[in-house]
Structure formats: structure tokens, C-alpha cells
Specification:
Layout (H helix, E strand, L loop, with lengths): L5 H10 L4 E5 L2 E4 H16 L9 E5 L5 H11 L3 E4 L6 H10 L2 E6 L1 H9 L9 E4 L3 H6 L15 E8 L5 E7 H14 L8 E4 L6 H4 L1 H5 L4 E4 L6 H10 L3 E5 L1 H8 L12 E7 L5 H11 L3 E7 L2 E8 L1 H4 L7 H6 L3 E2 L4 E5 L12 E6 L6 E2 L3 H7 E2 L2 E10 L5 E5 L5 E3 L2 E3 L1 H8 L5 E11 L3 E10 L7 H11 L8 E4 L13 H10 L4
Parallel strand pairs: 1-10, 3-4, 3-5, 5-6, 9-10, 9-11, 11-12, 12-13, 25-26
Antiparallel strand pairs: 1-2, 7-8, 8-18, 13-14, 14-15, 16-17, 17-20, 19-20, 20-21, 22-23, 24-25
This protein binds adenosine monophosphate (AMP).
Adenosine monophosphate binds next to β13 and β20.
């Protein structure tokens, strides 16, 4: 069993040193070059930078070719990677770096100055390492080292997901979890080899990067697109390459199928397009199947069990004569190979088909726990099962349908937004007495954020003032698109705010 994932690249490099590993704006590098760079980064981390085994290293990088040499270099050195969405606000990145006690953070140039100014790292730490800096070039001139021997339970990736407490929590993913995820890819989605191409059009810190692991292990050619999601560039790649696989969040898929080239572009080069991370509208899914043919796969997973809870395979999605087609298209499928999934009541008793309860799962993919967070662990991990916080039901055939997400989480453009995080920021405003943040349906983004805010007596609040506060403290995509200044919030007899009533209020006012 290969345990340190960085060995997977070494194996490919031995056999196919000149095969393209990564193509980006900078050109193409081969597996041989990637392998050398991984060894050098690892050598620098342990040698020049003096990091001790098990130290955490942040990755706050836009999509770029260096992503993989950094990620696999961290693993080769026996360190733990903490990938973060580069779109996060620098204060959010600083929180994660502090929470994980990172000793260094690799970042792309755009973020370097902003992170540097926050002085997150103590003097003497390697600190912020920008990919365009002289320091980074010096790392790549270091001597290579061999893999540090690793065990299956060694921590590999801290996947920071927002928590219901509003503070991000680090799901600790071990080599065992990531290897299981890769094996499950081969079992349920596609077997892969060096003829495959993996197109990365979504952030590498999440689904696209996680599924680079099964691709790099088999010598696939990774094409990395930086910048925002642009359907045109995707159609171009599909026209010039064969056996291409890519991830798209439902909102991205919707942009692809509504693009002017959809339908006429040559997409024969597409092998597999997998989507997930948020609910997919059935009408969009039907249109996508018409355009791309039987090449779509739906994935249901979460950071705590990366990419791997249930799925709807290609042939199932393509079965147009299935008597329950609509239901199957609306479902998120059957459990992945080797994964247990149950729908249970609050006491963990399995519910009969059709009854809605919480989805729980158990497998080698499930995280060991949250980093340094026993309270969250006690809630989420019980008797070996991960409580996902998602509500749904299973049908008699075992297809799972998600009814509602853990009550209040908002999913906008494929990204999770936790209301509490925004509420905490709004409550720092001296004139805000109370507030509640909820999601409202949006045709393009799935949902958008709406804030209800109660001013202190005699205080005057403006939407502009509140927006400025949010812009200062949270990522742009998380901030409310609508601020409703109200006199009071609906509450139950325990004084808890009734968000369901607020949602109803929005509906009744026609979302206007
Ligand atoms: P994350 O941890 O960021 O990957 O978000 C995971 C959450 O996204 C899950 O707990 C679900 O609420 C939601 N999600 C993931 N995949 C799907 C899917 N296929 N359909 C509906 N919701 C999904």
C-alpha cells in the first residue's frame, strides 16, 4: 500500500518522465520536472526552513501550476497541508492559519502583500511564501529529499469548512481517507491512465484539487485554468483534447449549458463531468444530459468525507426510460462503494424508506475529527458514524434524496455560507441590536444572502454602512445582497429567532 501520497507522482515520473503533468498559463511541465520540484520543495521545508515533522503549512493559492509541487512537497516532507480558498478575506485566512498553528503559508502574488501586512507569523517562522518571490525560487534550488515515511493515519490535509458556530473548523483528513477517496473514484467513476486529461476549472482547494489525487496517481495530464470560470475556455479545451474529465458546481454547469456555444461546440473530447457540492435543478440536469450525453456523474460528499458519500453514475443518469426518472434525477444517488449511509432519527435509529431524517455515513473516507475541537467532534462523530447535518430520505432502492441542508446553511454559487459568521460581523456594529441572516432563492447562484437587522433604539442604520462593515471582514461572495432594517425579529418562547418565519416573510413579500 502506498501511504505517502507523494510516492504516487514518483512512480509515474519513473515510468513516464516526459509525460505532461501540468499545463497552465506558464506552459507545461512533465512528471519528471514535477517530481524534482516536489523533492526540492520538501527538501527546503525540512532543511532551510527547518519545519518539524507534522507541522502545518497553509496553501492560499489561486489555481496555478505550482499548487501541486507545493501540496505534494508538503506531503513528501512529512508535513500537513492546509489548503484554503484564495477568495477568502485575508482575515479569514489569518484565522485559519492561526487555528491550525501553521508555520508558513504559500500564496500566489496577489495575496502576498495583504497577508504579509497582517503579521500573522512570529519572527523566525518561514511565514508568507509567495510563488513569484526570490525566496520561492530559492526553495526550488534546494536539494531534493526522499519521502518521509508515513503511516495511513498521518494527517495529510486539513480541510477547513465553515461550522454552524460560524467559525471554520478543520476536518482532519489522513492519507487513509484520501487514498480511500481515490480508490472509490476508480471503483465508481472511471479507471484512469496517462491518456486521461483532468481539467481544473474550479478552485483547487476543494473538489477539483481533491480529485487531482486519483488523476496524478495514474499519470493524467492536468490542465489548470486560473482566474474566473469561463465557459469559452472550457469549450476550447474540450475541442483540443481527448478523454477530459472536469468538476463543475451546479451553478457552473448551468453557466456552461446556457452559454452560446453549448450545443454547437465539439464536446466529444469530454469523458466525464462530475458535479456536486449543492443541489442541482432537474431541468438543468436534463439540459446538461442533452448537451453532453451520458458523461455526467453526480457526487454527494462533504469536507468531512471528501467527495465520497453517494453518487449517481453515468449510466443511471443516462437511463431515459427508467420509470422513476424524475425522482432519480432529483436524488443524489446510492452509497459509494464501501461506504455506509443511513437516514436516522435524532437517536440514531434508522428510518424506513421515504421518511426524512439526518444523513449519517461511515467509511474509511470519514475524517478522524476536527482539528482541536472536541466539542464539534462529540456532535459530529458518534459510534464511528459521521453526522452530516444534511436532511434527506432514502427510497426502497437505496437512492438518497436531500431535502434540506442542515437547517440554515446557505449555498451560493456552490460555496457554503454560514449565517452565523455574517451575523457575528454585523453584531460588531455599535448601532446593531440584533440580526438574522438567511438565504433567498436566486436563479443563477442557487441562493443569495439576506440580512434582517434591528437597530438600537434611536439609532439610524443604512445598508451602505452595513455593507462596508461586511466588506471589511468577510469574503465578498458571503456578504448580504439585501439588508432589511426591521423593528424586531420573530422569536419563539425561548427567545430563539425563528428563521423559518423570516423565510416565509420573504416569500410573502414576493422576494422583493
Ligand atoms: P463542503 O463541505 O463544502 O463540500 O459542503 C458539503 C455540503 O454541500 C453537504 O453537506 C451538502 O449539504 C451539500 N452538498 C454536497 N453535495 C451535494 C449534492 N450532490 N446535492 C446536494 N447538496 C450537496
Amino acid at each position: 500500500m502506498i501511504v505517502n501520497l507523494s510516492q504516487t507522482v514518483r512512480r509515474v515520473a519513473k515510468r513516464l518522465p516526459n509525460h505532461p503533468a501540468i499545463t497552465s498559463e506558464r506552459g507545461t511541465i512533465s512528471y519528471g520536472q514535477l517530481e524534482t520540484n516536489i523533492g526540492r520543495i520538501a527538501g527546503a521545508l525540512r532543511g532551510r526552513l527547518g519545519l518539524a515533522r507534522g507541522a502545518r503549512v497553509g496553501i492560499a493559492m489561486e489555481n496555478c501550476a505550482e499548487y501541486f509541487e507545493v501540496l505534494y512537497g508538503i506531503w513528501r516532507a512529512g508535513l500537513v497541508a492546509v489548503p484554503m480558498n484564495a477568495k477568502l478575506h485575508e482575515k479569514e485566512i489569518a484565522f485559519i492559519l492561526g487555528n491550525a498553528d501553521c508555520k508558513a503559508c504559500f500564496c500566489t502574488p496577489e495575496l502576498a502583500d495583504r497577508l504579509g501586512a497582517l503579521q500573522i507569523f512570529a519572527p523566525g517562522m518561514p511565514g508568507v511564501l509567495s510563488t513569484d518571490s526570490k525566496d520561492y525560487a530559492a526553495l526550488l534550488a534546494s536539494d531534493c529529499i526522499d519521502d518521509v515515511e508515513s503511516g495511513p493515519e498521518d494527517e495529510a490535509w486539513l480541510f477547513y469548512t465553515s461550522g454552524t458556530t460560524g467559525r471554520p473548523k478543520g476536518a482532519v483528513l489522513s492519507f487513509r481517507n484520501l487514498l480511500f477517496m481515490a480508490h472509490c473514484y476508480y471503483a465508481d467513476i472511471d479507471n484512469l491512465d496517462e491518456r486521461d486529461v483532468k481539467l481544473h476549472a474550479a478552485p483547487l482547494s476543494h473538489a477539483s484539487g481533491l480529485y487531482a489525487i486519483p488523476h496524478l496517481a495514474k499519470g493524467a495530464h492536468n490542465i489548470v485554468l486560473s482566474g474566473s470560470f469561463e465557459p469559452d475556455r472550457i469549450f476550447d479545451v474540450l475541442a483540443h483534447h481527448q478523454s477530459v474529465t472536469m468538476f463543475a458546481a451546479p451553478t457552473m454547469l448551468s453557466r456552461l449549458i446556457n452559454h452560446q456555444r453549448a450545443g454547437s461546440a465539439d464536446t466529444r473530447g469530454l469523458r466525464t463531468l462530475y458535479f456536486g457540492g449543492a443541489p442541482m435543478y432537474v431541468s438543468d440536469l436534463k439540459k446538461a444530459l442533452e448537451i453532453f450525453g451520458p458523461k455526467l456523474v453526480q457526487i454527494y460528499g462533504q469536507g468531512e468525507s471528501p467527495m465520497t458519500i453517494s453518487f449517481v453514475g453515468k449510466h443511471v443518469l443516462a437511463q431515459t426510460d427508467h420509470p422513476r426518472r424524475e425522482e432519480i434525477l432529483a436524488s443524489c444517488g446510492v452509497p459509494r462503494t464501501g461506504v455506509d449511509v443511513k437516514v436516522v432519527d435524532g437517536d440514531g435509529r434508522e428510518l424506513p424508506a421515504g421518511e426524512i431524517g439526518e444523513v449519517i455515513t461511515r467509511s474509511d473516507c470519514v475524517m478522524g475529527g476536527y482539528w482541536n475541537n472536541p466539542e464539534a467532534n462529540a456532535k459530529s462523530l458518534r459510534d464511528g458514524w459521521l453526522w452530516t447535518g444534511d436532511l434527506g430520505f432514502a427510497d426502497a432502492e437505496g437512492f438518497l434524496t436531500l431535502k434540506d441542508r442542515s437547517k440554515d446553511m446557505i449555498i451560493s454559487g456552490g460555496s457554503n455560507i454560514y449565517p452565523r459568521e455574517i451575523e457575528e460581523v454585523l453584531l460588531t456594529h455599535p448601532m446593531v441590536l440584533e440580526c438574522a441572516v438567511i438565504g433567498r432563492e436566486h436563479p443563477d447562484w442557487g441562493e443569495e444572502v439576506v440580512a434582517f437587522v434591528v437597530p438600537r433604539p434611536d439609532a439610524t442604520l443604512t445598508a451602505q454602512g452595513l455593507d462596508a462593515l461586511c466588506l471589511e471582514n468577510v469574503a465578498r461572495y458571503k456578504r448580504p445582497r439585501d439588508y432589511r432594517i426591521v423593528e424586531s425579529l420573530p422569536k419563539n418562547s425561548y427567545g430563539k429567532i425563528l428563521k423559518t418565519d423570516l423565510r416565509q416573510l420573504l416569500k410573502e413579500s414576493g422576494n422583493a
